[in-house]
Amino acid sequence: MSPRDRAPGSPASLRTANLHRVLAVLRRGAPHGEAATPVTQATLARLTGLAPATVSSIVRDLAARELVETEPGSGRRGTTVQLARGAGVVAGIDFGHSHVAVAFGDLTGAVVSEHRVPLGSGHDWEDGVALARTLLEELLTRHGLDLTRLRGITMALPAPVTDGVVRSSAILPGWVGVRATDVASKHFGLPVHVENDANLGALAEHRLGVARGETSSVFIKISSGIGAGIVIEDSLHRGSTGAAGEIGHLTLDDQGPMCRCGSRGCLEAYASVPAVVAMMAPQLPGAGIDDLVTAAGEGNVAAIRTFEDAGLHLGWGLASIVNLLNPALVVVGGDMARAGELLLEPARIGLRRHALDAVAATPVLASHLGERASLAGAVLQAAERIELALD
Predict the structure, then answer these.
(1) Nearest-10 crossing angle of helices 41-48, 11-28
(2) 154 by DSSP, 3-state: which?
(3) Which residues of 11-50 are buried (b: 16+ CB within 10 A; e: fewer)?
(4) How confident is the model over 182-191, as pLDDT tens digits?
(5) How confident is the model at residue 197 (pLDDT cuts 50, 70, 90)?
(6) Domains of the chain by residue range
(7) Do the domains 11-86 and 210-367 sit in the same CATH topology, yes or no?
(8) What does DSSP assign to residue 327?
(9) CA-CA distances (angstroms) from residue 251 to 180, 223, 248, 296, 330?
(10) 204 phi and psi, to 5 degrees?
(11) Reported pTM
(12) Ramachandran angles phi, psi of 121, nearest 5°
């Protein structure tokens, strides 16, 4: 097809645009649980705004290319349509302070299989990417696939990312200054998009989790650090340089404890996993977050009080977010979310103390996807970023 045939406003250009509109709906489908369900041609026409006859023609075209599968229903418009598994797969990679997780999914963004292993926080980017590739190859092989079947990858990192470059991060120091999009794409031999992990957690909770059905929400990931992913009008808000959502560095007390960022009294210094573990170290030396949750559940007063203090400070930080953005709800995820109501109820109290009356009742809920949120979001985003061959 010549460039003139694809010029803006030409019939071929309009046809391609309509194809992509239909594919966009099929990627999201009619979400149910963790996967998109098939949609009818009538639903496709309604959601795309295209005429039923146009949708029928496009579906026939996509089926002939083996990009979609159809199932006869009640009448032509009742025929259900879904993306074909044979159209290819996408992958997600999630790096954390002490782990790397990989997953692959179909073109709707639904996770098919995943694997997570420990990884030292001091690793350099080359070792991390090499391990991720090995894990992903093993995962695909178990399902009779290989890297050639991948159409795209999204990689989650716990750091601000600007134009593919990893900015300051005490969590993964071996990645700072690395143009992660380029080095990962070269290593895998296909496009790799890099995104902040909290943003991807927000995307997953918005599409699949507790925030589903809301147009605005904030996802707070509390692990080694504290970051926020912000969804406004169904879209991720990254800020002008990709650093939006660094809620962990809101100053609560400029005379407070030193934070890893160099400031004093940041929210992270009161409510992150290292902060909570450090507070309990004199009484429970060597205890991790799960040990503290167990101790609190068994009635350890100091552990209960530690989570209360962390939750109250968290609520103080959340008040700034809801005062500014007025989201429909706040979702708390990451390792700290395993404390459940030990953390969340004090956070609600802290929120009510510091928020305006108009937003003080903003729900604060636990993540439905848990530690999988960023990984699930990576697979979702990988599916939505790819372009299928339509020429």
Answers:
(1) 110
(2) strand
(3) eeeebbebbebbbebbbbbebeebbbebbbbbbbbebbeb
(4) 999 999 999 8
(5) very high
(6) 11-86, 88-201+374-385, 210-367
(7) no
(8) -
(9) 30, 18, 8, 28, 20
(10) -65, -45
(11) 0.86
(12) -65, -20
Q: Which residue, 217, 177, 175, is CA-closest to 199?
A: 217
Spatial separation of the C-alpha atoms in residues 245 and 238, rounded to whole Å: 8
The three-point CA angle 28-162-262 to 5° equals 120
Residue in 193, 209, 206 with CA at minimum distance from that of residue 242: 193
* Residue whose pair of structure tokens reads 């949609």 in the numeric block: 39
CATH, domain range 11-86 = 1.10.10.10
Residue 219 has what DSSP assignment? E
164: alpha, beta or left? (left if phi > 0; alpha if psi -120 to 50): left
Which residues lie closer than 8 Å to 293 by C-beta, 6 or more apart? 303, 338, 339, 340, 342
210-367, superfamily in CATH? ATPase, nucleotide binding domain (3.30.420.40)
Tens-place pLDDT, residues 208-266: 999 999 999 999 999 989 999 999 999 999 999 888 999 999 999 999 999 988 899 99
- Could you tell me what percentage of the chain is helix, strand and coil, using 3-state DSSP and rounding each to the nearest 5? 45, 25, 35
Q: Tell me the three-class secondary structure of 328-382, residue by residue.
A: CCEEEECHHHHHCHHHHHHHHHHHHHHCCCCCCCCCEEECCCHHHHHHHHHHHHH
For 106-155, what is each residue's pLDDT tens digit? 888 889 999 999 988 778 888 999 999 999 999 999 999 999 889 899 99
Which CATH number is correct for 88-201+374-385, 3.90.950.10, 3.30.420.40, 3.30.1120.10, 3.90.226.10?
3.30.420.40
